[in-house]
Write a structure and sequence with these properties.
One of its GO terms (biological process) is intraciliary retrograde transport. By secondary structure, the protein is of the alpha+beta class. 36% of the residues lie in helices and 26% in strands. The strands form 17 sheets. It has a four-stranded antiparallel sheet with strand order 1-32-31-30, with no helix packed on it. Strands 2-3-4-5 form a four-stranded antiparallel sheet, with no helix packed on it. Strands 6-7-8-9 form a four-stranded antiparallel sheet, with no helix packed on it. The C terminus is likely disordered.
Amino acid sequence: MTSSKELFALDAPHGQGGVFFAWQRASGGFLATTGYDQVVHIYNRHAEAVEFIKLPGMCCCFGWDKDGDLLAVITDKSSNLLIWDANSFRSQWIDTNIRDPLNVLVWGKSSPILAIGSYRGNLMIYNHKTSRRVPIIGKHTKAITCGAWSEGGLLALGSEDRSLSISNTEGDTLRVATLRAEPQDIQFSEMKQDERTAGENTVSLIVGGKTLYLFNLYDPENPIELAFQPKYGDIVAYKWFGDGYILIGFSKGFFVVISTHMKEIGQELFQVKNHKDNLSGIAISTSLGKAASCGENTIKIHELHDLKDTSNVITLDEERSLEHMEWSEDGQLLAVSTSKGNVHVFLSKLPLIGSALQSRVAYLTSLLEVTITSVLEQGQTLTISAEIEPTFVALGPFHLALGMNNRVWFYALGDLTVEFIRDKEYLGTVKDIHLNADYCSVLFDGKVQLHILEGEGHDGDLSEERESKLFPEQGKNYVVSCHSLTQDFLIIGTDMGGISYFFLEDWTTIHDFRHNTGIREIHPEPNGTKVVFIDVKGHGHVYNPVNDDFAIVREFPDKIQKVLWDNSLTDKDVFLAFDGDHVHTFLVNPDDSEGISCRNLGKTKIPPGQFPILLFSGELSLQTQSGKLVKQVLSTHEISPNISEYSNTELRTILDKNMALGRFRNAWAICQILDKEESWRKLGFEAMKRHEIEFAMRVFRHIGDVGTVWTLEELKYVEDKKLLSGHVTMIQGDYDAAQTLYLQSGSPVEALHMRRDLLHWDQALHLAIKLAPHEMPYISKEYAQQLEFTGDYTGSLVHYDKGVLPKPSNTDEEEHNAFCKGGIARMSIRCGDVRRGMEICHHLKHRTLMKECAEILESMKQYSDAAQLYEQGHYYDKAAYLYIKLKNWVKIGELLPNISSPKIQLQYAKAKESEGKHKEAVQAYLAARDYDSAVRIYLDHLKDPESAVKIVKETRSTEGAKLVARFFLKLGDYNSAIQFLVISKCVDEAFQLAQQHGKMNLFAEIIGDEATPEDYNSMALHFDSEKNGLQAGRFYYKAGHFSKSLRHLLKVASANAESDGEALNLAIEVVGKSGDNHLSRQLIDFLMGETDGIPKDAKFLFRLYMAKKQYKEAAKTAIIIAREEQSLGNYRNAHDVLFNMYQELLTNNIPVPADMKTNLMILHSYTLARIHIKQGDHLKGARMLLRVAKNISKFPTHTVPILTSTVIECHRSGLFQSAFNYATILMRPEHRNDIDEKYRKKFEGIIRKRPKKDGGDGVEEPPKNTPCLFCSNPVPESDLYCPQCKNNLPYCVATGYHVTATDLTTCHHCSFPAFRSELVKRAQNSEPCPMCGNALEENSLKVMNPSQLKKAKEELEDSGNDSQTNGDSLNGLDREEGHLSTSSSGGSNSSSRPSSYRP
């Protein structure tokens, strides 16, 4: 009892003072009480008094017989016995013939026999059944105080004379035992012994309140008397329980358990102080499995299987002390009496009566109270007070039925109210009852009555004949053993094994099923489309009435108390069976390959005293004996919210559970944690079995199984369940089951297709006979192919013959026949019928067939026939090969033009050579690509060295070269011999030959870069010995001896300073390849003149830096070189040096120095000036010359000519002020004498006619403004600096003006910007790019925007960091003059190149 509920209380029914009570035996329906008021009260279980019996004196003892039918009462002032009949409510007084006061009465355990003892020790034994009375005078010398009957009819009595007597039913004394004190509470029971004896073998009693006396009936001479610790106090009461255990209550509140087994006697198995001061009573209910004790105002209840577990504590606050307690025999009620004379009755166990529908449950919460609640929605509860204590309950969608015996009370259920409709009596005791929305079905006396719930008029469509019906119908003699009612069907099970479906809408039986034995129970799922039934043998079965599928439930428990289907839609195929201790969970698969099937998922332990009533989505609702509803998740459905806490083994178990239940979302989450392909595949296949194709595709897509995903993609829209099951089963490899499913589906031909795909040709042919006879020739063809492959040629020949269509009607059929005939040809040859095979080959004239048959003949060593077929099939190489075996050279000669195999050509060549036909042999050798043999024949036999040399040079044949080299050696032609020795890889031999005959230079030229380092070293040593330093240095370099190479090369360069270019260039290459800093420093010292005091040309230093990829230093050197070239007047060379270095720096992502950009811009402006003047565009030419003239110090060689051109072009273009300015400069003394005489007078005239500042003739027009590329501010078109945004402007390589955003492109070779229109004109005129000199292609000149230009021109990215970039010097004369003074100074200093300079 997990909670207490007081059923009722009797407040002092007999006045103040003690009260005594006794529960009716067996049923426990009545409670008898008495006290000091000389009255006996009889109450029912609902505290209603059913009888009051007035006594002639105070009741001294009363008790119920074993069946609870009779209550016996004796008083202290009468010798008569009162018997009250509980069935008739009548009292009867019986004279005991004992004249002294009566003291005790004891009813027998096995018969209605009563023993009555008196105060003087007399005894009467009364048999109520026979009314026989047996008086025994002087049984004891003093008052008989206690007694007990055994199951075997023995009577044990205790008396104040301190003795124990054992008598039979006649009153004869069998044993007498003397005691040390007065006895109390005699009981018969079975004591545990080593040798088992059937029945009660021990009499136990309390002696003097201190000891427990055990008297063994089979060993009367050795009684056992157990004493206990004094601290426990006196023994108040004791109870036997279990297998020989005794529970003892002591007055000081102790609660002790001992065992009567001889090995354990004297040991306390359990001890606890249950009450603080005193204990007044104990009780045990074996039906409940509980023990209780009372003391003070408290009741404590323990579980018998674990007494340490105190399951409940009841405190009666209004009571001072409790005196006595007793459970009803069925354990439902516990009564306790108090010192005030009150009696409290507690409900400790309710009948487990209930019913469930969908998610609602109706169950007993008190003896007269039924509660309806929803397991899904909390708070929706209805309570019904019953008129009677129901023994069965039935719940419908809108109604509730309560009843007992043959009477049923019906209630209508509202949302918040309950309304009584009516009660109805049936013709027999109701065994089972079910409700749906409109009808009730009741089972009684082997019949089922189906009737409407709310009577006529409830539904206007119901006629009188549809209001009620009795089964079995008239004329049928079966007995209904069970039934169930769904919304649409009444399902009936019979003792003859029949299951009938009665359709309520049509009011007729629509389906019958016959089982081989009687049906005991039937449990349909909510819709009735699946049924679990139990036959009289206890076997469970599952049945599908839709298609009559039927299967036994394996591992079904033997003793079943309840079967429940899961009421949720997600788990509608799950049901459980309860065997009293466990619920066994089963899963039904209605789409199994063999029909419906069922498998056991596992079992769940149910706590004692709880009973399953509803299963919803794996959560089991259990009814408890205390009238409560508890929930428990089935172990097959249980999973922790935090699945990451599980081990991999546990996760795999949970995965199996979830897959079995079809809970694929949970399974997906588990697989993600396991992350094993095996688990994912398992999940995917399970989803396929459940026809969850989309989910299965998701799984296989996750693991990258593309093939399976594509396969499932084709199954997504298959609606035929059998067909889909067949496909799934085939994928999983169960082909026989798949065939069965295919044949049951709407497309049985799929079975044939499967067998064909699996190459199961015997089964395919068998299926084709019925399913597709027209496919048999094609299957025979495929079967024959397989047999041919496996080597069964005879069988293959038979099926190829069967595969030939008699009358082909189209091209495909003709091709099919040709294939079969080809197979016949091959198999005929293999089976020995060569003639037939050859005839078919000649008839079909199919090259491939001829080849196949020829190969078979060749393997059979039929070379002549095989060669013939090869030749007819144009397989000339194979034919020739066989003709060679046959030594048929004539035939080979005929086939030779068609033969491509070098091997055959070679064999033919050898044959011709052996015959002395060298010309034919050499041609065959060449065709066979055996060039060495061809060279040999040309030299040895045909005496044609020119052809041999030609072959060697074309093929680079090593062996051929050796032959030619030896030939020339014989002729004394050493040059040719050395050449061919090198070709033949005989380098050592060629070296020695060259050394002997002074041909080392030729050898060095021939060997090139193909020699080994050792060969190069040998050559270097040779040239070193001959004092040829340049060649020695070259070959030391190739041999990898960089230090020696550099030493020799520098020696050559020092010795021959005038022609040191080749030696220095090679030295630079050596240093660059070596990567040795020491060698690099050595060479730099030489180039700078540190070694011999003669500085070398800066171009060698530039090349050195480039070879070492030291681009920054190379750039500085390039600027110096350019200045030298520029100072010498070699402006194009200076331009090319700067441009190439500029490109090299950009390629290697190195910033371009400002000096290099400025010098390149000025040189390019000079180049453009010449181009514009040549093209007649004098204004542009003048603008470029003005830019050059502003930097005239950089052109010292041609200062006067350039200024002269500037004056002339400016005057010609109308730039009179600029012409005047530069004419003035020219007429200065340092330049005057250098002016050409023909221009001097003109310049003097220009100076005399100075342009007017206030307008008029000779005034220079301002330059045209164009927008800045970056900020759109107007800037003179020839200026390369924007004063607004402070940016340097990129210039056009075609005009020299700064570019604009509207007409922008870049050269596709050098990536310099330009006006697109200008470059397009040059491209159309086939003119190259002025900057890089490469040809322009109009299609490659793409329109660009400024942002693209920034990416394309890397020099613009660091324009803000450089102090001078292209265009810095062009933004005003005053600013430029200051700049010119600096750069001019730098230019003059750099040209001297002092020896202390280090880049």
